[in-house]
Amino acid sequence: MLLKCCEDFNYFSPDSSLQRLMVRKPMRVYLIYGSGGGGHKASANALMDVLLQRNPDWDIRTINISPAVGAEGGDKLYNLCMEKNWSLIIPLLHKAATFFSPFVQPLIKKRMRDMWSSMPEADVIISLVPFLNPSIIETQPGAIHFTLITDFTHTEGHPWIQDHRQHILCGTEECYEQGKCIWNLMYLRWNILILKLLSQIYMRVGLQLGLPVEKVTRTSGMVISPRFYQSLDRAELKEISMQLDFRVNSITSLVFFGGVPPTYATRRLVVALLRKGHNVIVICGNNEGLLQDLCKLKLKYPELCLYLKNFTRDVSTYMQLSDVVVGKPGPGAISEALVSRRPVIMLAEGRAIENKMLWYPHT
Question: What is the reported pTM?
């Protein structure tokens, strides 16, 4: 799929990476993700699964870029806000990252070059992170660069479309239109605040300049693991349900808030579902505090039909086992539930970003 895209773009010169792709085996692909939340890593793993299924001889690696560029502290703070459900702080973190980004780019590029120097040269780099794409491209000029947007749209707080050398893969029609018409200073290399402010002024008055259409690709939807397209038969699901000691005639609810679920809100929801007599599966992700808290609840009331799981790549099995999925309206969770043909109860709790996401399943 990637090689076909590169050929269709007709963008590269004869001595570019595309020529090397034709003769070098195995092809080397780096998938870049961050540690803020769990969606970027889940998408990277899903894409790696698909690529390896079709091209088992390719050298495909997932790389957590956050420690290398010094962004791990910010990601930990973001995850803490998710865990504590401090929803009002998260937009401020996005604004801070956007504001300081031009000032820290030189340091980020230096750290990236140090990281790349210890790794083999890549043929293709697929970024699954916002903010860092110009630096990734400048420090790896010989590679073909794709940006797979794991959000429903490009936003000012989560900027994905940043450089004219990107090839953008969009999961929604709105994002696709943004890629074609969003105004930015991609054709200028700016590193000072004045030009950044000018770009915002021009954007406000409606001057728009988009990427070439051939560099923006509309995919069929968000990238999810191929496991979600593989249905288990009823006998298998019944056997798994018996192993979990679930009640046969009760509703099974999957509580899924992504990689870092909020502790208090999740526990409150789980208790409410258990009181209704549901079988409850909880994906605790990387929230060890939530896992320990619910384990104590399970030990105190062993008769509860409650199954707990930390971070797992087998969400598809638990989703097929459930009758309903309850969680936050994240792009990945919504897409996975819809592909699994499971009804979704989305809890946005009044947050503007998540309220907007509620409309995407209908579009």
Answer: 0.80
